[in-house]
Design brief:
- By secondary structure, this protein is mostly helical.
- It is built from seven helices and four strands, in the order H-E-E-H-H-H-H-E-H-E-H.
- The protein has a two-stranded parallel ribbon.
- Helix 2 packs across helix 5.
- The longest helix is centred in the middle third of the chain and has 18 residues.
- It is elongated.
């Protein structure tokens, strides 16, 4: 990777690029799961350690995926938040809060910052390049920071 990184860094410098942007997920942040929806299964299993809900982890995953799709279809601008998704689940507020918290905890547990990419971005910032991190995911900026960047300076 270092040769590609060096080539990219050189290209940015040679072209006089002043601003770059990177998608947070699958560029800087990765998860220790085969598929992103596996987070939902793990979150339900985590929730089930201290709570009982009359469904399996796979059934919850299917419901969670379905509800997210429905909420996105109904959104005027197509963007939805984690809160929007969980508010549409057919459970009492206490269960919804617990499931949402479990998902955030599992995101934090399974997610990690890919250090070579972090170092590359830090190098760009040191060179005076303005860097934007973007995401089209349902997690808010604060949730992304809490889950994945808690150990990094803001």
């Amino acid at each position: 990777m270092s040769e590609k990184v060096n080539n990219l860094r050189q290209f940015i410098q040679n072209e006089g690029i002043k601003t770059v942007s990177f998608d947070v997920f699958d560029t800087i942040v990765f998860r220790r799961v085969a598929r992103p929806v596996d987070v939902f299964t793990a979150a339900f299993e985590h929730f089930s350690l201290t709570n009982e809900l009359m469904m399996s982890a796979d059934e919850f995953k299917e419901l969670r995926v379905y509800v997210e799709k429905q909420v996105k279809r109904q959104a005027i601008h197509g963007e939805v938040s984690l809160e929007d998704i969980f508010a549409s689940l057919p459970f009492p507020a206490k269960i919804i809060d617990g499931l949402k918290q479990a998902e955030l905890e599992i995101e934090q547990k399974l997610g990690f910052v890919y250090q070579p990419m972090h170092d590359f971005i830090a190098g760009l910032v040191e060179q005076g390049i303005q860097v934007f991190l973007v995401s089209d995911m349902y997690l808010s900026q604060a949730q992304i920071r809490q889950c994945f960047f808690a150990n990094y300076p803001q």
